[in-house]
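Look at one record.

>
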Amino acid sequence: MSELRQDPTTYDWIIMATERSVRPHELNGKKSSRHRGGDYNKECPFCPGNEQRTPPAEAVYGDNDKWKIRVVPNKFPALTPEGNTSRVHYKLFRKTQGYGRHEVVIESPRHNEFLPFMENEHIENLLRVFRDRYHALKEDTEVKIIIIFKNHGEEAGTSLEHPHTQIIASPVVPPFIRRRLEIATQHYDNTGSCLYHELLTNEREVAERIVMETEHFVSLHPFASHYPFETWIMPKVHKSSFGNITEDEIRDLSVLLKSTLLKLYEGLDDPDYNLIIHTSPVDDEHKSYYLWHIQIVPRLTQMAGFELGSGIYINIALPEQTAAFLKE
């Protein structure tokens, strides 16, 4: 019999379709278009020697002529620093200029060096770059939230194969995010504790959906996972903002992130995936109601009419089973 589970962070109901479920090893990634060539592609704008094909860099790590990580404005940005955030109203219609920032972090000079196979030191530096850019972008007083995300593979929405992460600094907090924050705030007001930290504590007590645990972080598959193999990485020490991550936590996170992505790579045959760093709005960096975390969503299934029409997700793989599979 199938089961309905409620996500405590969104109040969404998720159908765990156990009668339609498959064994974890039967869910393979979509990698038909994945490049298997060398570490350089002369047509790629992110490869060394093609720097003139991107906008001028915002930051370069390493030597200019032998860089290790580059940060550039997105050539086709969703938001731009031109204009302002003043709003225009007409009856129920409201609009404003597309003000904000949209950056691309080129993770490596090597065209085929994906995150699970990078050296730990390089992943540490990459996390430091994310933190540096977070603090640089929040200096703009119009910026309300900073979203760091990675699309890996065509099914996840990427158009360029070269390993990269994107950062968008938005002048508005989207309703999708606001709803999560409101639920977390209400829980904190009612109980005096952070909903996400409490969720992490409960998951560690149950221990059925834990994939890995290190000194500072836990990797797990949530009780009401929206997607098969949906993975969260959560810090043990309470911080609402990713921008407040410490050096010790960065070193620890680099190990866990690499290991988690490698498990997904090997267990699911190199799946396309989305990775999102969920963090509090800039103005709430030191508030106690929220816990920043990383969400990884392998693109193994597609939303269909029922999900689009009802807002109820159907997950065909129990998180207890997928966590056990990756743990092994």
In short: The helical segments are 120-137, 175-191, 195-206, 247-267, 305-310, 319-327. DSSP finds six helices and 15 strands in the chain. Residues 14 and 313 are 5 Å apart (CA to CA).
